[in-house]
Amino acid sequence: MRTSKPISVTLGRQQSSVDARLASGAYESASEVIRAALRALDREDQVIASVMRAKVQEALDDPRPDIPAEDVFKALREHHADRMKAAKRHA
């Protein structure tokens, strides 16, 4: 019994990528190309999630004292204001 169901998708510009892979002989069907692409996307998602978890853990483990939110937002506002001034000078 089939565990998946057929679907129809419109690939737009990506159709040429599928066609090139089929023409190369690397894949026997468009379904194989799409399954490989989804596996690659799953791996990418796993890597991103792993990196983000590591960054969060690194921040949690950082022994330096917390910076008050007011100070952070003040610095961001000042940085933004400086960037806006610089953009106006170059416009």
Characterize the structure shown.
With 91 residues, this protein is mainly alpha-helical. The chain has one domain (14-90). Helices cover 70% and strands 0% of the residues. It is built from three helices and no strands. It has helices at 15-24, 30-61, 69-90. The longest helix is centred in the middle third of the chain and has 32 residues, at 30-61. It starts with 14 loop residues before the first helix and ends with a helix. The mean pLDDT is 95.
Number of domains: 1
Q: How many distinct helices?
A: 3
Tell me how many strands there are.
0
**Gross geometry:** elongated
SSE arrangement:
Blueprint: H1 15-24, H2 30-61, H3 69-90
Features of this protein?
single chain; 91 residues; mainly alpha; 3 helices
Summarize the structure.
With 91 residues, this protein is an all-alpha fold. 70% of the residues lie in helices and 0% in strands. The protein has helices at residues 15-24, 30-61, 69-90.
